[in-house]
Write a structure and sequence with these properties.
Blueprint lengths: L1 H4 L2 H52 L16 E5 L4 E4 L3 E5 L38 E2 L6 E8 L2 E14 L3 E10 L1 H53 L14 H50 L6 H25 L7 E4 H10 L7 E6 L3 E4 L1 H18 L3 E9 L2 E8 L25 H4 L4 H11 L3 E6 L5 E8 L4
Parallel strand pairs: 9-11
Antiparallel strand pairs: 1-2, 1-7, 3-5, 4-6, 5-6, 6-7, 8-10, 11-12, 12-14, 13-14
């Protein structure tokens, strides 16, 4: 069961069914309450109409015995001012809800009879005057619910009480009822229909939701299966299927394939990097070992200077590899303030073995970042320029809008246009004939561009105004 509800399809179906169930229950309750209220109001109106009909008869001085009370659908009670039942529906056996439980009328008293006429009541022609008409109350009658038994049949009723004032009978109250059987029947029928129809509707909705969700999630299952196969085979060249639906699942598949492509590129790059690093490390280590072995056997033949140079070269290569590893791991450059002009003055003043003159044109340009990483960029660019320059290297710093710019130019042969992107790849040297000692391992420019990217900037190369190559580092200025 737990595994079943771990499925998105099952949870979606259950959720949709619960929402529809709650909506149906709420709607059904509202319908039943509205139906019950409407039918109750209808019965109240019928009860009031029946009560006013009897009251009108009483107002017209109709005797109790002549009242039309034979309607078994509307039980009637007529109560005088003393609370006595003076008239009631024939065959009324019991009643509740009117406040008067009596069902047998009492004999009318003097107030209910017509008073004797005196001599003054005769008109000049010897004819008697007609009695005055009573008055039926226009107020909204009180409404109550109760039950009554007429001729052995019991039912629920809605009662209305109408007051009437007469000259001959005094103050009277007419209680008349209307049957609630229609209301109960309609409510019962509606409730039965809901109890039968709602489960069927829920079953249909659950089935439709299950099928629609299954169809919608079919591409997801295909993506999952392909990802599982890729994981098992470790073949990053494979791609997940992209459905032609242009929806969220299609975008998920596209993003997954883009991630796989980036992962494949990263893994291939890492493999090449490891292979190249192993190759680059092998040469100085092998050379250093050979010199030490020769020195151990023949001390007089030990090339100390060569061993030192190989050790320095090995140390620099290890430092470059460690920095690249930290950059690939996402090392943050930090938020320190660095003035590129001051950085250039300090770094260039420590260089003692440059073969070409270094000229400077330095303007203050502050950036936020790592001083050591930016110093490595400057050193790598100057080293690269020294290897290719004929006689001069120029270092320039300046501000350009919201950017701090560092430029290093040489007067060498420059970089061909079709090679200007490739030179920033790792372990790439355009001049394969150049010795490793002179040309380095091909990591300097790769490190420089990675550092520039970590600082939110760029490193590009173009032709210098006087010929040669010009490398331009652009980093966002401090506070940007």
């Amino acid at each position: 069961m737990k595994r079943f509800f771990s499925s998105v399809r099952a949870r979606a179906t259950l959720g949709a069914s619960l929402v529809v169930a709650v909506a149906l229950v709420a709607a059904g309750a509202a319908v039943l309450l509205s139906l019950r209220a409407n039918l109750t109001d209808q019965a109240s109106g019928q009860a009031e109409s029946a009560a006013r009909g009897v009251a009108s008869q009483l107002a017209g001085n109709t005797a109790y015995g002549d009242l039309d009370l034979d309607d078994e659908e509307h039980p009637v009670q007529v109560v005088d001012g003393k609370g006595r039942l003076v008239a009631a529906t024939e065959d009324l056996e019991s009643i509740s809800g009117t406040g008067v439980d009596a069902v047998q009328p009492v004999k009318p008293g003097p107030a209910a009879s017509t008073p004797p006429k005196s001599d003054d009541d005769s008109d000049d022609d010897g004819e008697s005057e007609a009695p005055e008409m009573g008055e039926v109350s226009d107020d909204e009658p009180p409404l109550t619910s109760g039950s009554a038994t007429i001729d052995g049949e019991s039912a629920d009723y809605r009662f209305a009480a109408v007051e009437v004032s007469t000259e001959t009978k005094g103050e009277l109250t007419v209680h008349a009822g209307a049957s609630l059987a229609a209301r109960q029947s309609a409510v019962s029928t509606a409730l039965t229909s809901m109890l039968i129809g709602f489960p069927l509707l829920l079953a249909v909705i659950a089935g439709v939701t299950w099928l629609v969700t299954r169809r919608a999630l079919r591409p997801v299952d295909a993506i999952r299966s392909e990802m599982a196969a890729i994981t098992a085979s470790e073949d990053l060249a494979r791609r997940v299927p992209e459905p032609d639906t242009h929806d969220e699942i299609a975008r998920l598949a596209t993003t997954t394939n883009e991630t796989l492509a980036a992962l494949q590129t990263s893994v291939e790059r890492q493999r090449r990097f490891v292979a190249d690093a192993s190759h680059e490390l092998r040469s100085p280590i092998a050379s250093l070992r050979t010199q030490l072995e020769v020195g151990a056997a023949h001390p007089e033949l030990l090339d100390v200077q060569g061993a030192v140079e190989d050790t320095v070269r090995l140390q620099e290569l290890a430092a470059d590899l460690l920095l690249l590893a930290r950059l690939d791991a996402g090392e943050k450059p930090g938020g320190g303030q660095v003035d590129l002009a001051a950085l250039a003055r300090e770094e260039l003043s420590q260089r003692t073995r440059d073969r070409a003159d270094v000229r400077t044109d330095l303007e203050n340009a502050e950036v936020a970042g790592s001083r050591s990483q930016l110093a490595r960029v400057l050193g790598n660019l100057v080293n690269n320029a020294q290897r290719h320059a004929r006689s001069q290297v120029t270092v320039t710093t300046r501000s350009d809008g919201g950017w701090a710019v560092l430029e290093v130019a040489d007067d060498g042969e420059g970089v061909p246009k079709d090679e200007r992107d490739r030179i920033f790849e790792r372990f790439v040297r355009l001049d394969d004939a150049r010795t490793r000692d002179d040309g380095g391992a091909g990591l300097g420019l790769a490190i420089a561009r990675d550092v520039a990217a970590r600082h939110g900037g760029t490193l590009t190369v173009r032709e210098a105004p006087g010929g040669g190559a010009l490398f331009e580092l652009r980093v966002p200025a401090a506070g940007r």
